[in-house]
Design a protein that fits this description.
The complex is a heterodimer of chains A (113) and B (111). Chain A is mainly beta. Chain A is built from no helices and 11 strands. Chain B is an all-beta fold and 111 residues long. Chain B is built from no helices and 11 strands. In chain B, strand 9 and strand 10 form a beta hairpin. The N and C termini of chain B lie far apart (41 Å). Classes of the chains: A mainly beta (113), B mainly beta (111). Chains A and B meet through strand 5 and strand 10 of A and strand 5, strand 9 and strand 10 of B.
C-alpha cells in the first residue's frame, strides 16, 4: 500500500530540547510539506521541498528545521527556539509543486512537558 | 490579503437531512481548490480537486461545485459516518507555491 507514514504518533518535549518528527512516503512524490495545525486555525505551512537537497521556508519556519537527503524522507526538527511547539504536525506529499493534490500522513501530536 | 473562509463553523444534521458547506475565497487567479475530510486526531483525507468555475465532482453522498468566488460541498442524505471536519484549501501560486486552508466546518450527523 502506498502512503505517508509519520512517527511517533505522540511526542513529548522538555524545555530546551530539540525533537525530530519523522515523515516517510512511498508514493514516489517529488514534493513534500510540513504543516502545523492549531485549534481554530487553518493548516499553516512550515517548510516544503520540491526535490532532494532543496527546501524552502513556509509561513512559520522560525524555530523549525528540515532536511531532504532522500526522496522518500522529510524529517522536521522542532528546535528549542520554537517557544510554542504544542500542536498537531502534518506531513504531506504531492507529485510536484503547483496545483497538485497533496496527500497527508496521520500526524504527530507534540506536547510540552 | 488572500483568504479562505468556510461556513458554517459547525453544522448539526439529522441523518438523511441534506445540506451544503461553503468555502469562499479572495485569491485572485485560482488555480485549484481542494476539499478534504478530517477525523479527530487524524490527517486530512483527500476528497476532491476543482480547477475551474462550473466544474463539479461527486463521490457517494458528496458533491463539490465551484464558482468564481466560492465552492460548495453538498451532502445528500448524510449518515452518521459522514461526521467529520471538512477542510477547504485554495492553491495560491506565484512565488510561494502554497495552499491556503480554511478553518473547516465541523459536521455532526445524528442518527
Amino acid at each position: 500500500d502506498g502512503g505517508i507514514t509519520q512517527s511517533p504518533k505522540y511526542l513529548f518535549r522538555k524545555e530546551g530540547q530539540n525533537v525530530t518528527l519523522s515523515c516517510e512516503q512511498n508514493l514516489n512524490h517529488d514534493a513534500m510539506y510540513w504543516y502545523r495545525q492549531d485549534p481554530g486555525q487553518g493548516l499553516r505551512l512550515i517548510y516544503y521541498s520540491q526535490i532532494v537537497n532543496d527546501f524552502q521556508k513556509g509561513d512559520i519556519a522560525e524555530g523549525y528545521s528540515v532536511s531532504r537527503e532522500k526522496k522518500e524522507s522529510f524529517p522536521l526538527t522542532v528546535t528549542s527556539a520554537q517557544k510554542n511547539p504544542t500542536a498537531f504536525y502534518l506531513c504531506a506529499s504531492s507529485i510536484g509543486l503547483g496545483p497538485e493534490t497533496q496527500y497527508f500522513g496521520p500526524g504527530t501530536r507534540l506536547l510540552v512537558l | 490579503e488572500d483568504q479562505v473562509t468556510q461556513s458554517p463553523e459547525a453544522l448539526r444534521l439529522q441523518e438523511g437531512e441534506s445540506s451544503s458547506l461553503n468555502c469562499s475565497y479572495t485569491v485572485s487567479g485560482l488555480r485549484g481548490l481542494f476539499w478534504y475530510r478530517q477525523d479527530p486526531g487524524k490527517g486530512p483525507e483527500f476528497l476532491f480537486t476543482l480547477y475551474s468555475a462550473g466544474e463539479e465532482k461527486e463521490k457517494e453522498r458528496l458533491k463539490a461545485t465551484l464558482t468564481k468566488k466560492e465552492s460548495f460541498l453538498h451532502i445528500t442524505a448524510p449518515k452518521p459516518e459522514d461526521s467529520a471536519t471538512y477542510l477547504c484549501a485554495v492553491y495560491y501560486g506565484g512565488a510561494t507555491n502554497k495552499l491556503i486552508f480554511g478553518t473547516g466546518t465541523l459536521l455532526a450527523v445524528q442518527p
